[in-house]
Amino acid sequence: MTTHPAWVQSWIDNYGDEVPFRFLVGEADGQVRGIALLTAGIEQKYGPFPVKTLHVGTAGEALQGTIKVEYNRLLVEPEYSQAFLDGLVNTIKNDTSWEVFHLDGFADNDLKPWEASFPNAAIRYRDSLYFDFEEAREKNSDVISQLGKSTRSNIRRRIKKLGNLETDWATNLTQGAEIFEELVDLHQQRWNATGEPGAFANPKFLNFQRQLIVQLIAEEKLVLFRVRDDSKTVGCLMLLVDQNRMLDYLSGFESFEEYPSIGLITHYLCMEEALKRGFSAYDFLVGEKQHKNNLSTHCNQLCWLTFNRPSLKTKTVKTYRKMKRFLQGTSVTQ
């Protein structure tokens, strides 16, 4: 999804005015074989120091308003992947403008070809939990039967107590836009109630999503799903579709005090419908939330690689971190 033309175009339209970017194009036999987006990060830091960063793909935005790219990858024909990667790495290493190089949100298998080119890079691994629909079909099973006993009990109890739940799966732009605006309202209400601005307070982030909906919903590359309780919207989801996998991207829910476990219930109902519609998996992406553990059956790993060019800034931060670990270890020993 992160290399889909609509995703990249929406990112450029909304972030390209503040994040410098360029494309590297690989050609063979007079034809384009691979394209990579390179971006220069803004407001990036290494420790306490501001640094100049270089990123591959739609990344490098300021933290407030970032789209948090996950399942990032190169867009290249398979038979040209190594040659394109070699050329891309050579270009990156010869670019003297950056101090820190980042690969953001790559799947572990997609990251492996990069590792030899950036030895001693720091790599952060994060779990991306998912439910395997294909496995459920092989077992001729529904979703709930594949979940843990306590989760099954909780879902059945909550649905029985709510009673009159209705669901909508957007099939056109008008319905999708309506669900999205409800999602935004619910999301903002919950975050504002805790004193936080909420993701959609950033107009670039909000417009990025609206543009995606217009371009992707007709291609069935984006799903907007809604749960109502007696005509009151209590949960909304926006999911991306990447190689027939559903990616849990954005959500908005009513107050958990008024509707306990409504996030769990909304995802569960969407999953049962997605199973019927032939999707292969339901991926919750990174982030530690209880409903992800409750509703998942498998796990992928996404990776964030950071490679620092030797400089006074990076040496200072590394020395400080080593000293901090040493002092913490000494304290524990004592």
Automatic annotation (TrEMBL):
Domain of life assignment: Bacteria
Q: Write down what this protein is called.
A: BioF2-like acetyltransferase domain-containing protein
Q: Which SUPFAM superfamilies match?
A: Acyl-CoA N-acyltransferases (Nat)
Among Pfam families, the record links this protein to:
Acetyltransf_6
Query: What InterPro entries is this protein classified in?
Result: Acyl_CoA_acyltransferase, BioF2-like_GNAT_dom
Q: Which residues form the BioF2-like acetyltransferase domain?
A: 149-292
